[in-house]
Amino acid sequence: GAPRRRRARESRRRHRSRTPESDFAIAMLAGAPGTAAAAAAASVIALEGGEHALAWGVALYVICAATWTLADAVGARLVFRGKLPSVPWRPNLMFNVYATPRRNLLDRVSRRMAAANDGNDATTKHRRRAFATVVGNCPFAHLGGAALARAALDRQPVKSPLYRAFEAFAGVGIFTAEGDDWAAKRSEVLGAFASAGLEPLAAASTRASAGLTAEIDAQLAAAAGGKETRRRSTVDDAEKGEGGGGKGRAAGRGLEVDMLPRLQRATLRATFEYLAGVDLPTAAAADGDGELGGGLDAAVVGDASPRRRRPAGVWEDEYLAAATDLRRLIPARARSVWMLSDWAYALSPVGRLERARIREARRLPELALRAAVPGSPLDHLRRGPAHGGAHRRGRGGSGIFGRFWRAAIDRWTGLGSRDALLDEATTLLFAGHDTQSATLSWALLRLAGDPVAQRELRASLAADPEDSFESRPGPAWWRTSAGAPVLEACLRETLRLHPVAPFVARKLTSGVLASEGGESGGDSLTLPAGCAAGVWLHAVHRDPAVWVDPDSFDPSRWLVRSDSIDSSKKGSNVRGSDVVRVRFKGAGFMPFATGPRSCVGQHLAWVYMRVVLAGLVRAYEVRLAEGEGESDALTPSVGFTVTPANAARVRLVPTGGELDE
Hints:
The protein is of the alpha+beta class. The chain is built from 24 helices and 15 strands. The longest helix has 45 residues, at 35-79.
């Protein structure tokens, strides 16, 4: 018995002993900000310091972490105290996908901006279109004034960690990349677009517009019982390269259609064709025959053996269904408690759904890379150093623990190896199809609610029936804003009222001093380095200090007449031949954001939207759906982008058919 008791006492004394290794591990654990470092310290303690050292180390870590978090949270709340009204951050408890998106989000933000600007909040004596929240321990300034927004976005290229929820989908593309990696990729993407030029995009856009018109004409013909008529169709003229009319279908009072899904499909086709240099049906057929090879690492998409033939429509259906869910899922997670833990989110039902949708949404970009022909933008990126070679793979983590953490998440979530080129193709395809189709949907709804503006636009596109719009002298009309001023004004006014990405955020790396100047009762505001700035473009574009009658759809505010320098006010009576140019956009207009992280493909978006909207307005008169008021039609569905909640349901009547008044 005595020897046994002696050995037990020695064992307990040995486990209670504090070795130099355990002291170092305890200190490491107390100050470790990262999960990987904490796990390493706990392992050292368990092996070297015994159970008691482990217990003391864990307790010390919990105390230090709680104290650090509490101190940061208190400090964050003091950053904007007395400067901006404070709104509590209430994260969503998202356990399933919201069936109906929060339609009133933009209205609630606008009301808060207006209340802050009117000085109705008792917590601050200043009046600015802004308010503050504290997200975790990060002070977050929400900005709705034009001057404040521009100051916060200029010279601020850092997004991380504000867009962490997008990394599983966008990977290391330019949307989420940072630092030198982002700069190199942005330069390479711009070079790819410049190398390809705008002509292939204009051609793809014309084909997409013609296909959309043909599809609608077929439905009109079925609704009319096969009655055929002749109407002026400049889309057909463009396809044939001549000025003659094309066949159309009259359907009496027209046909009610959901334009959003049709525009999404047409835009996806045009974007795919421009990026890959080949249309989707051709790529799908070649892929099924095993004719497509390179473009991706074998570890990412496997070999180039023949695959089961899938029609182009199947590819489109799968991608659009996945993209629609992701448009709601990703931003919903960013506003929920799931941002606190990647692992917990991955275990949740919505986390599993997101992983499945990401895998589905990345198959079409994989096809685009396999099909990309020499000279296409994707082929240019494939050969560039920022997307190929040594930079081809990886997630951009810093240090051994960062790389280990990201690789572990990729393996555990089932997303496989990440490829920089595939991430870029995914980013460009999604951004290209989603934003442009949403803008065109809003444009059709706005024109349907304003018949006068619609008639003026149609008249400006075909003022002389004998003069083909596409054959006008000078640069191609779709290339610049000067080619079709009224068309440009309608698109700009649509983007002003309905910026498709309503919210952009930056992590400030340096202090920002913003002077509101002309804003009513405003003064300067300093946003300190380290805080986050979120710009609500929906509110910026309705800033009464910049815009006259900001809530009204008034394309004439963008037009300058031959006998007037200023036509920015409502009722300027701009008509056809009076227009000489489009007004300068001004500092308060930023639908594609501004600063170094502004949209890299905005010049491409303008080309596509000009071509498609012109084709639709010349082919059809657009009216609101039966029994639906304008306010109902303009209800938004807010996700990553903002789309019409009614799927842009309108009534289309051929311009050459019999129109009822």
